[in-house]
Amino acid sequence: MRILITNDDGINAPGLRVLHAIAEEIAGPDGEVWTVAPAFEQSGVGHCISYTHPTMIAELGPRRYAAEGSPADCVLAGLHDVLAETRPDLVLSGVNRGNNAAENTLYSGTIGGAMEAALQGLPAIALSQFIGPGTEGLETPFEAAAVHGAGVVRALLDNGHWDAGPYRTFYNVNFPPCGAAEVKGTRVTAQGFRDYTTFSVEPHKSPSGRRFLWIKGGAQHGPTGPGTDVTANVEGYVSVTPMRADLTAHDLLADLRSKLE
């Protein structure tokens, strides 16, 4: 199996090393793992593509490339340049440092990389490690992902729905904020919503008197309702959420047509 990996934390991020090990286990001794990841951190860029300026790409080593762009740019570079003649069988994005559950999903560059791969017609999985009090004393906060990641990916490859529709299914996996031994299992979940917090801004003044705004997150560890991703994670389960890029509110179409057409 040939696997392309990317992330949004950057080419030198420890989570990418964890993902590389997961991908090597999945690819097997006769497989290949190729890396095309952002040269610098791209957290929070979502599904952004660098449509108005070129993206520099550099080969850092065998099957290892850095691109000055977003995770979606990296997937495009991997598919149409680096691996243009040898299309990969699977794209993995992550392992992100921090959860990409609930509304975080909408901002996530990790998700953006997997989404772009799905739009390009490839199986894709995004993987993220929830960080919290349960990961603070660990040698690495990625322990749960490192130990359980390959098993979850293999289970999805064997049992997931890999449709070939115009908006192909991809998967969002979040590992709970605990050690590997404390992981209770896997739950298939819906995307939750944290109704107790939102992103906001915090103003600051520089020494020169100029005014700047820092984007500020909120609380992450409250549950998001039964059957949803954050609830599963904070209860010690790996969450697996099937996703598509189609943003249509299908449940509203019939009613709206009856009133507007």
TrEMBL record:
<dbReference type="Pfam" id="PF01975">
    <property type="entry name" value="SurE"/>
</dbReference>
<keyword id="KW-0378">Hydrolase</keyword>
<keyword id="KW-0963">Cytoplasm</keyword>
<feature type="binding site">
    <location>
        <position position="43"/>
    </location>
    <ligand>
        <name>a divalent metal cation</name>
    </ligand>
</feature>
<feature type="binding site">
    <location>
        <position position="8"/>
    </location>
    <ligand>
        <name>a divalent metal cation</name>
    </ligand>
</feature>
<comment type="function">
    <text>Nucleotidase that shows phosphatase activity on nucleoside 5'-monophosphates.</text>
</comment>
<dbReference type="InterPro" id="IPR036523">
    <property type="entry name" value="SurE-like_sf"/>
</dbReference>
<dbReference type="InterPro" id="IPR002828">
    <property type="entry name" value="SurE-like_Pase/nucleotidase"/>
</dbReference>
<feature type="domain" description="Survival protein SurE-like phosphatase/nucleotidase">
    <location>
        <begin position="3"/>
        <end position="197"/>
    </location>
</feature>
<dbReference type="GO" id="GO:0008254">
    <property type="term" value="F:3'-nucleotidase activity"/>
</dbReference>
<keyword id="KW-0479">Metal-binding</keyword>
<comment type="similarity">
    <text>Belongs to the SurE nucleotidase family.</text>
</comment>
<feature type="binding site">
    <location>
        <position position="96"/>
    </location>
    <ligand>
        <name>a divalent metal cation</name>
    </ligand>
</feature>
<keyword id="KW-0547">Nucleotide-binding</keyword>
<protein>
    <recommendedName>
        <fullName>5'-nucleotidase SurE</fullName>
        <ecNumber>3.1.3.5</ecNumber>
    </recommendedName>
</protein>
<dbReference type="InterPro" id="IPR030048">
    <property type="entry name" value="SurE"/>
</dbReference>
<feature type="binding site">
    <location>
        <position position="9"/>
    </location>
    <ligand>
        <name>a divalent metal cation</name>
    </ligand>
</feature>
